[in-house]
Input
Amino acid sequence: MEIFRELKKVPAFAGVSDKELQAMSSCFKAEICFFDKGQEIIRQGDPLDKVILISKGEANAQNEDMFGNISIILNLKAGDFFGIEEAYAEQDCFKDTLVATEPVTVVLFDKTKIISPCANNCLCHQILSKRMIKTVSSRALALTDKIKHLSQRGIRDKVLSYLQTQSLLAGSRYFDIPFNKTELASYLAVERSALSSVLGKLKQEGVIDFEKKRYHLKGKN
Amino acid sequence: MEIFRELKKVPAFAGVSDKELQAMSSCFKAEICFFDKGQEIIRQGDPLDKVILISKGEANAQNEDMFGNISIILNLKAGDFFGIEEAYAEQDCFKDTLVATEPVTVVLFDKTKIISPCANNCLCHQILSKRMIKTVSSRALALTDKIKHLSQRGIRDKVLSYLQTQSLLAGSRYFDIPFNKTELASYLAVERSALSSVLGKLKQEGVIDFEKKRYHLKGKN
DNA sequence: CTCAAAATGTTGTAAAAACAACAATTTTTC
DNA sequence: GAAAAATTGTTGTTTTTACAACATTTTGAG
Output
């Protein structure tokens, strides 16, 4: 079955047996969709009847405020869900827009099938639930991290706070970030050109080095 | 039993039957603690062996960054949990500090007892799980809201974005916020005095009105 | 009630970011 | 591989915020 093959590829389900994945594929109403780079997978305000699992590629969650300003909330990778917070919090529409930043494959699960366990309380539901809870929790922590960056006084501190976190996450002073400069500015909610000059200054001072999406946080040791 | 009486008071458990609350009280290792205004209930970095439920009062989740700047992440009310994100995301310590903003009663649940269902998979575990998942999801949405405020260009837009959300949440143009001016500045990560003058200007312009913690968002209609 | 402490408002100055406009470079597309 | 589009860097001006210092008001403790 096609859903099965798709779920099998998701790194987050690495530990799950084929039998369980098979069960999940048949138990849930699910469909597969493909999107090109730049396409909107979900638009904020869309009715919430599906929950999305990114099975391949990356996408950005964006938000447009009351005056049309768009800013990137966070970046989602293969294995991440989208829309579960809304589903569990009993919202009736998506709060953010999901945009493919490269070719993306998603699995769409029926919302009601997902949040309420089926009559026989099958194991696959438990497995999926556990994964989703962990996703939501991790995302809440990631959002708290982002808040810490945004709470910094200036652009310099914002970007350093962000890079610090990314470095820690990667476990190395050398690491790739999922954003280009324009996107990073959007993520940090600062002016792109101002960010550009701050980054240039930091590089000149020998605090950091970067090339494309690869950064090097030069520490004390 | 004392835990039972405490849980009975929590608004979030209004729909739960006495029998279930009784079961929860006996099933989980739980203890009750009291804190005065200003006391730290949990300090960031503390080992994560308990999960906290605020059963009475309010508290602020705060965070201290690498250079000692403290900022308020969000405000928790009776019925809110603290530390579940970390528990589910398999962290080993608390990410934020929890400070009582008034006399507070909390119920401390044993972490391991909470995140892994007990052998007999009792109903009370399911009830508590459901509540916690909803809490985490709602909080993730609240954090996204906060990110929207912090992403605004200037103080004026930040504070208006915040008040808009609070008004919507309250379902009225007149509403109370959980912060005084100093705390609001901390929450919005701006200079207190600058916020003060912006608020004064908004009041003068007739956009808003406020007194203490009560605000009035004067709309078009 | 009184005093001390905390919160709030006000102002001027210095610093920083937003904004705008453009050049240079890189990436994408046909 | 050439042209078009997008990204990135650069600079000067304007606007906004941070910062600091202080006056006033409110809150809280004894």
